[in-house]
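Why does residue order matter? Because the sequence determines the fold. Keep that principle in mind as you read this record.
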Amino acid sequence: MATEQIGQTRTDWSDQNARLAPSAGRTSSPVSQVAVQTIQGMILSGALAANQRLPSERQLAAQLGVSRSSLREALSILQALGMVRVESGKGTFVIGPGGTGATPPVEWRFSSRYTLREVYQFRLFAESAAARLAAMTITDAQSIALHQILEDFKAAIRRMDLVTTSQKDFELHQRIMELSQNRLLADLHGTYRNIFLESQRLPMARPNQRWEPAAEHERVVEAITMHDPDGAAYYMRVHLMRAAERTGVTLTDLP
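Structure:
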């Protein structure tokens, strides 16, 4: 049975890997996403304690049954969510679901393509327009479905499941893009999914601000479902400006 002795903490990786392995219904998930969920599950269960050092990349990849590249992707996601920290020359350490209360430095993985500011500028204009369009045509059935995504988002925050929280955050915004009935807007959002999703992970690293997006989402969803185009566009702009601020980016709200 594979185990890892770290300080005074003994982690039974084989047992954790068996208990937290993806079910048959999740076999379509990318390997890195499975690794993210597994490691997060161990943090939430207490199997990995705050400040505990993870095994080496080679060891951890072997113990989780994933490639080293998939593991690096998983650790990058967890770092963006503020659940682990990487210390140069020392290794990767658990922060924990509650974080430290401090604001970690933002590491934007797509900086070679677009700045984080550029991403939020695009989102500000595209998603506020999508919210306006969605409010004009949304049906009762679509309203119920949109509210359900919002409830799933809040439920994930309550159980400190930051991986699912960021996924539901993306899903809510993607659904609004689809409800705009503008296929180009929806396709662009889907095409650049990884970039937009990463921009939605970064604010999660601030534990004292994780409920702020929920209140902002509620205002956006309420305006859309009440067929209030101006309100929907306004509250989406406010939400995205505040989301940008939570990552250290200040946007100017242009008319």
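The first strand starts at residue 3 and ends at 6.
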